[in-house]
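Please fill in the sequence for the structure shown.

STRUCTURE ENCODING:
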């Protein structure tokens, strides 16, 4: 199975391709011992509902900005926004920024910690330097394409981080909110300059 990370409604311009991913269907039955994809789905649902409570990490001093806020609004851009806009004239072209609520735009350029599931995009020297952080693990393991406000594009600013695919991680850095385009195509509304990463306590 080939998983494509793409902006919803714009299959012609994927932002990245990931190789073969193995895993059981997300709707598979819960095993008797409480494991399996059914348990994973339930755990991920609980995590995605609790990720981001507006608290501050004592270890970092960076406010936790979670997907409970970043993906709480409806974001369904039409074809006019998804298609290339290479000849934009100020005040005369469409912008995805108009669909982002003011309380979310307020996070732009702010130091933050974000928590979610990693999908590595670029590996250099055995460490991940570019990745997506997503609200839940469906994209990572089951090929479900998330909505554009359910993932954040991350570029590590110094050394890379270890690939962690099976549990949520917390990244610290600077969040950027607003329309992002490549070759005219809308590729995201969240970008993160990552400084460091930490795993949840055992």
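FILLED IN BY: designer on duty
SEQUENCE:
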């Amino acid at each position: 199975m080939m998983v494509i990370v793409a902006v919803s409604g714009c299959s012609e311009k994927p932002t990245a391709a990931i190789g073969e991913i193995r895993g059981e269907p997300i709707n598979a039955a819960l095993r008797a011992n409480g494991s399996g994809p059914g348990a994973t789905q339930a755990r991920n649902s609980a995590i995605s509902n609790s990720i981001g409570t507006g608290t501050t990490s004592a270890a970092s001093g960076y406010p936790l900005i979670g997907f409970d806020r970043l993906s709480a609004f409806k974001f369904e851009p039409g074809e006019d926004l998804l298609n290339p806009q290479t000849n934009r004239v100020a005040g005369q072209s469409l912008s995805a920024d108009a669909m982002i609520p003011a309380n979310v735009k307020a996070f732009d350029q702010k130091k933050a910690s974000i928590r979610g599931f990693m999908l590595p995009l670029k590996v250099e020297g055995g460490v991940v330097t570019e990745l997506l952080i997503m609200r839940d693990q469906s994209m990572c393991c089951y090929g479900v394409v998330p909505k554009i406000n359910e993932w954040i594009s991350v570029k590590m600013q110094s050394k890379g981080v270890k690939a962690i695919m099976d549990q949520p991680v917390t990244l610290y850095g600077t969040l950027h909110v607003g329309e992002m385009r490549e070759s005219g195509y809308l590729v995201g509304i969240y970008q993160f300059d990552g400084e460091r990463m930490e795993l949840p306590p055992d």
